[in-house]
Amino acid sequence: MPAGSVLSGEGCQVQDEQRIVSRAQGGDEAAFSMLYEDNFDKVYRFMTLRMRDRTEAEDMTQQVFVKAFEALPTFQWRGAPFASWLFRIARNQVIDWQRKYGKRATSSLEEVTAPSAENLEDRVQDKLAVEQVVAASRHLPPAQRDVLGLRFGAEMSIAETARIMGKNEGAIKALQHSAINAVRRVLAQGNHGED
């Protein structure tokens, strides 16, 4: 994601987002490009936690934006950020993919998050830790994987995750708590790679 993107950072204001979405709905390709660039990484990280490989995650992420572009004229503000609408599309894509191919969506991707350390050894340790957590998450029910993907992969708030999943915030907190505890148990048992 470009460092100077319009919507990234803490100063993102709802009015700015509404203005950009409105321009995109009016056919402004540059405005849709801003929405794409500001949301692509989050949607991709969510998909990497749900899909089996990078190619599938990339394809599904592109499909989310194609569907969003096609449905953009019907988008209406309902008190939630634009990203919430995108993640409902993304979550539905995963569900459709599972139904179509009869697959259990899990992830074994290397690049869920960018390593924060400069040191090569630290980067390898970070990558191994992410791979272990992703492998451990295979043992979780789909709702718990969705919560982890949205909360930590896509960096959504509890409220945004609740809107996307159609649940109340208390339910999201409970699912997150259960998911984290389950991942900890799997990691402690050392069988995170086996199904």
Concise account of the structure shown:
It contains eight helices and no strands. By secondary structure, it is mainly α.
Helix and strand arrangement:
Elements: H1 14-25, H2 29-50, H3 54-71, H4 82-101, H5 120-137, H6 142-153, H7 158-165, H8 169-189
Give a description of the structure.
By secondary structure, this protein is an all-alpha fold. It has a single domain, classed as RNA polymerase sigma factor, region 2, helix turn helix motif (Rna Polymerase Sigma Factor, Chain: A). The longest helix is centred in the N-terminal third of the chain and has 22 residues. α1 crosses α2, α2 crosses α4 and α4 packs across α7.
Question: Radius of gyration over alpha carbons?
Answer: 17 Å
- Residues in helix, %: 55-70%
Shape: globular
Question: Segments where pLDDT lies below 50 for 5+ residues?
Answer: 1-12, 104-118
- Number of continuous helical runs: 8
Distance between the termini: 34 Å
Alpha-beta classification: mainly alpha
Give the total of domains.
1
How would you state the average pLDDT, rounded? 76
> Hey, roughly how much beta strand do the residues contain?
under 5%
Number of strands: 0
Main sheet attributes: strand count, strand direction, barrel closure: none
Name of the level-1 CATH class:
Mainly Alpha
| CATH architecture label | Orthogonal Bundle
Give helix and strand order, one letter per element, not per position: HHHHHHHH
The CATH homologous superfamily is termed RNA polymerase sigma factor, region 2, helix turn helix motif
What is the CATH topology assignment? Answer: Rna Polymerase Sigma Factor, Chain: A
